[in-house]
Design a protein that fits this description.
The structure is a single chain. It contains nine helices and eight strands. It has helices at 20-34, 38-41, 56-63, 89-95, 105-111, 115-127, 144-158, 189-205, 244-254; strands spanning 8-13, 45-50, 68-72, 99-102, 131-136, 171-175, 212-217, 234-237. Helix 1 packs parallel to helix 3 (56-63) and helix 7 (144-158) runs parallel beside helix 8.
Length: 266
């Protein structure tokens, strides 16, 4: 598998909205779109799909040979053992995953996932050659500098066990303000850009330049990407992408959009 990321990442988490049958149907349509659309066929944009665990093997099969990568919505921090209901990075890699989402706000709220668990999961992702999509975002709506400070602190904790030897590791940081998840609208473009710049500065200062990506989620949808003026490397979509036509609209926005990073997924 090629772990190199193209300039724009469009991630889609299906959460638990679609059952297996609907997931398969959706992925077949996404495969058709991705094999026809200029943004994906040119290699300028990478679509990453994150279905539920039971659907992963069939989704990998459907998307094989297309410009669409597959990821999981979570993983456990150990590679094997007596952990009922858990899924390891070893298994995810074996079934064909390239990415794994870690630290989503719903995991924290519903399953009491704390910073220590997130750091161990990120380490497990790297250990198993999976690209982590690390979710960060302020708890409540606040001024941009305060939001950025909270996000950077979360990111620093998540990467605490990553070690000093990062190459050829890759990381995607998904900025998702918790107050914007499931809301009517996303955060404002100025706020998103301001936080993203601070996240990127931290990544660069800690040796992740050229091997990291900062994308936005949190009620993200069509019409948002071009308003961010290149300060964001892509979007992390939720319910707005459950209609394949809406995902196509987002891909339309990435076509011809200027992206300056060489590497570069509610």
């Amino acid at each position: 598998m090629n772990s190199a990321l193209p300039p724009t990442v469009i991630g889609v988490s299906l959460k638990m909205y679609l059952d297996h049958v609907r997931t398969v149907e959706w992925c077949r349509e996404i495969a058709r779109i991705a094999t026809e659309h200029e943004a994906t066929t040119s290699g300028a944009t990478k679509v990453v799909v994150l279905p539920t665990f039971p659907s992963l093997p069939e989704v990998v099969e459907i998307l094989a040979g297309t410009p669409v990568a597959v990821g999981a919505q979570d993983l456990f921090w150990e590679d094997s053992g007596a952990y009922t209901g858990a899924v390891s990075g070893v298994t995810l890699r074996q079934v064909g995953c390239e990415f794994v989402e870690i630290g989503h706000a719903e995991r924290k709220r519903l399953f009491s996932e704390d910073g220590a668990a997130i750091a161990r999961k990120v380490a497990a992702a790297f250990r198993n050659e999976l690209i982590p999509i690390i979710c960060v975002g302020e708890h409540v709506e606040c001024e941009t500098p305060r939001a950025a400070e909270e996000c950077v602190a979360t990111l620093e904790g998540a990467l605490a066990l990553a070690g000093s030897s990062r190459s050829p590791r890759r990381v995607v940081v998904a900025y998702e303000p918790e107050w914007a998840i499931g809301a009517e609208e996303s955060a404002s473009s100025d706020h998103i850009r301001g936080v993203a710049v601070q996240i990127r500065e931290w990544l660069v200062s800690h040796g992740w330049e050229g091997s990291s990506h900062v994308i936005y989620g949190g009620s993200a949808g069509p019409g948002l990407l071009n308003s961010l003026h290149g300060d964001i490397d892509g979007l992390f979509l939720g319910r707005f992408a459950h209609d394949p036509k809406e995902l196509r609209r987002v891909l339309d926005e990435t076509t011809g959009a200027a992206r300056t990073l060489a590497l570069g997924v509610d």
